[in-house]
Write a structure and sequence with these properties.
binds iron/sulfur cluster, 9 strands, 393 residues, three-stranded mixed beta sheet
């Protein structure tokens, strides 16, 4: 570890780094010691309860979360930085809306932008403390970023599990720089300011909060639409998705602390017209090549074409508008079984008993077991929907 010098020197080094971070557009910056995070038992309970769902990369790196030294050997300090991404709401909305989480409205992938800025802050540290070691992190390393952000004084945990700051709410990206330089830590944020408010818990359409401050990712629309790849969305959660096709912002939208959050001036966060909202029927018609061309450098690439089209079909199924049936009938011939299955489900939501015959014909040609089970469910659902009329006859 490089010599950290006198305390006056380290104080001034810390202030120089923070000023560079602010000049680079970070709204919050603080320093935490590289220690075992206080939230580790909470993470372990969460993993043991199976709440990580299919995000196997979390339990698989369980040990690494216990200390930042697993991410950077001999780490002594964690510089935590936050960048506000709140932008103006879109002025125009299209008729076929598929809502996309706010963090993905901008151009490109925020990971690239943040990593580049973090590298510039780290570069300054290398200039001042030659021979030091650093590692810049945006999301991908096994680090409890929110825990370290709280420890660095950036905010408190809201009941929706997001980190909240009185000035900028929770619409911000977090980045971290781990270093073996011993920097003076900031005071942790010890207080919480949710009070008796429960808006975030009450608004969640899929009941993803078993209790305040605990998120069951398996029920969260963000997990279902982004992280649950290559699998159908559980039947009992599809209606709750409403028109969310990539992430969900409801528990942040209702937070009173976010109503006061400033608007970001970062040009690359400005909403792109086709990203907010997206046209679900248009998405449902994209080929693999068209999808890649349009979304390759955006967060929507993560769930991939099959995931996004699956989500778009469910959004149409939740629309209550039968005029989308023709798009859904086209999608039942999609190359990917996930898309076919979701389209069949959506037809069962919008359709009537007249659609049953077409689904029965589809049963004769479909050979994927999961899609066949979706078709059977859809036929049963349409039959049930028609039952009151049959009784009346
Ligand atoms: Fe619920 Fe949406 Fe918040 Fe997930 S993001 S916990 S689904 S309100
Ligand atoms: Fe806290 Fe209310 Fe915001 Fe939830 S909505 S995080 S309870 S202030």
């Amino acid at each position: 570890m490089p010599d950290s010098g006198t305390s006056q020197e380290t104080l001034s080094l810390a202030e120089t780094l923070k000023q560079r971070a602010r000049d680079l557009g970070f709204d919050l910056v603080g320093i935490a010691p590289a220690v075992t995070p206080a939230g580790l038992p909470r993470l372990e309970d969460w993993i043991d309860a199976g709440r990580a769902g299919e995000m196997k990369y979390i339990p698989n790196r369980r040990e690494a979360y216990t200390h930042p030294e697993y991410v950077l050997s001999e780490a002594r300090s964690v510089i935590m930085l936050a960048m506000n991404y709140r932008t103006e709401e879109p002025l125009e909305t299209k008729s076929v809306e598929m809502r996309i989480s706010r963090y993905a409205w901008g151009a490109g992938d925020y990971h690239d932008l943040l990593r580049e800025r973090l590298k510039q802050v780290a570069g300054l540290l290398h200039e001042i403390a030659p021979g030091c070691r650093t590692r810049c992190i945006v999301d991908t390393a096994p680090l409890l970023e929110r825990d370290f952000a709280r420890l660095a004084g950036l905010g408190w945990f809201g009941k929706n599990t997001m980190l909240l700051n009185k000035q900028i709410g929770s619409w911000f990206f977090l980045g971290a720089i781990l270093t073996d330089v011993q920097l003076p830590p900031d005071a942790p944020h010890e207080t919480a300011h949710c009070g008796t408010c429960t808006r975030c818990l009450d608004v969640c359409p899929t009941d993803a909060f078993p209790e305040a401050g605990v998120l069951d990712a398996r029920r969260c629309i963000s997990y279902l639409t982004i992280e649950l790849r290559d699998r159908p969305i559980p039947l009992d959660l599809r209606t709750g998705m409403q028109n969310w096709g990539f992430g969900c912002d409801l528990c942040q939208d209702v937070c009173p602390w976010n109503s006061k959050a400033p608007i970001s001036t970062e040009a690359s966060f400005a909403p792109q017209s086709e990203m907010n909202p997206a046209n679900a029927t248009e998405l449902l018609g994209l080929s693999e090549e068209q999808f890649r061309e349009r979304f390759k450098k955006t967060p929507l690439a993560r769930p991939g074409r099959a995931g996004i089209l699956r989500n778009a079909a469910i959004v149409l199924g939740n629309s209550g508008d039968r005029s989308y049936l023709s798009s859904l009938y086209a999608a039942i011939h999609d190359e990917h079984p996930l898309v076919r299955g979701a389209a069949v489900w959506a037809i069962s939501q919008l359709g009537s008993i007249d659609d049953r015959e077409q689904l029965q014909s589809l049963q004769q040609v479909e050979n994927n077991a999961e899609v066949l089970s979706e078709i059977q469910f859809a036929i049963d659902h349409l039959t049930q929907k028609a039952a009151p009329d049959a009784d009346a006859d």
